[in-house]
From TrEMBL:
Keywords: Repeat, TPR repeat. The lineage of its organism: Bacteria, Bacillati, Cyanobacteriota, Cyanophyceae, Nostocales. The keyword Repeat applies. This is Tetratricopeptide repeat protein. SUPFAM superfamilies: TPR-like (SSF48452). It comes from the Bacteria. Signal peptide: none annotated. Pfam families: TPR_11 (PF13414), TPR_16 (PF13432). GO terms for biological process: receptor-mediated virion attachment to host cell. InterPro entries: TPR-like_helical_dom_sf, TPR_rpt, Ycf3. TPR repeats lie at residues 61-94, 95-128, 129-162.
Length: 214
């Protein structure tokens, strides 16, 4: 029985980087701007609709990240990937850009590319639970459920209250045939969703539990 794991991406808001929908984390600094010497390459990005020509020369990595985020929210995943890629060119240590590009790649079915981005993000920040969660999803989609479980377990060591990890680990356990452990994880996720007032997610977790108990 297959259930859908939850993916998420990050957004910036008033100087704070946070996960889209679920949780908050510390902002990563961004540096660098596109200068006139790079104008030819900037035109290439202009052609795929990243920005208007007069503004290209002053865009920062954070500006491009936000453009990628906007495109990702609207479903323009290839445009989002292009924007995140340019943000990374300006700031190679921009962990959030790697994470969101990885999610966009996963949404397009490129789980190997997503894995590369999550690995790089974890080299920059090895203590980010939600990146382990995302990499766990990619590993599971590539058929590496054991590796996925390792990532989910590491995520919970970092953040024992991460609801998405309980949810996704529960689904992976169900796929591995560990029904009891799956129900335990999904019940934990349901309880947290209920505490957070996320009734739709709470009900979804309960529905999966009911299916597993049949």
């Amino acid at each position: 029985m297959l259930f859908i794991k939850q993916l998420l991406f990050r957004q910036l808001s008033i100087g704070v980087a946070k996960t889209f929908v679920i949780a908050t984390l510390a902002i990563f600094s961004t540096t660098g701007t596109i200068n006139q010497s790079n104008y030819a390459s900037d035109i290439k990005f202009l052609e795929i609709g990243l920005t208007d020509a007069p503004k290209v020369a002053t865009l920062t990595a954070e500006d491009l990240f936000n453009q990628g985020l906007d495109k990702q929210k609207k479903g323009d995943l290839r445009g989002a990937i292009a924007a995140y890629t340019e943000a990374i060119r300006l700031n190679p240590k921009y962990a959030l850009a790697y994470i969101n590009r990885g999610v966009a790649r996963a949404q397009l079915g490129d789980n190997k590319g997503a894995m590369e981005d999550y690995n790089q993000a974890l080299r920059i920040n090895p203590n980010d639970a939600l990146t382990y969660n995302s990499r766990g999803n990619a590993r599971a989609d590539l058929g590496d459920n054991k590796g996925a479980m390792e990532d989910y377990n590491q995520a919970l060591r970092i953040n024992p209250n991460d609801v998405l990890v309980y949810y996704n680990r529960g689904i992976t356990r169900s796929e591995l045939g560990y029904k009891k452990g799956a129900i335990t994880d999904l019940q934990q996720a349901a309880d947290i969703f209920k505490q957070q007032g996320k009734i739709e997610d709470y009900q979804k977790a309960l529905e999966i539990i009911n299916q597993l108990q049949k």
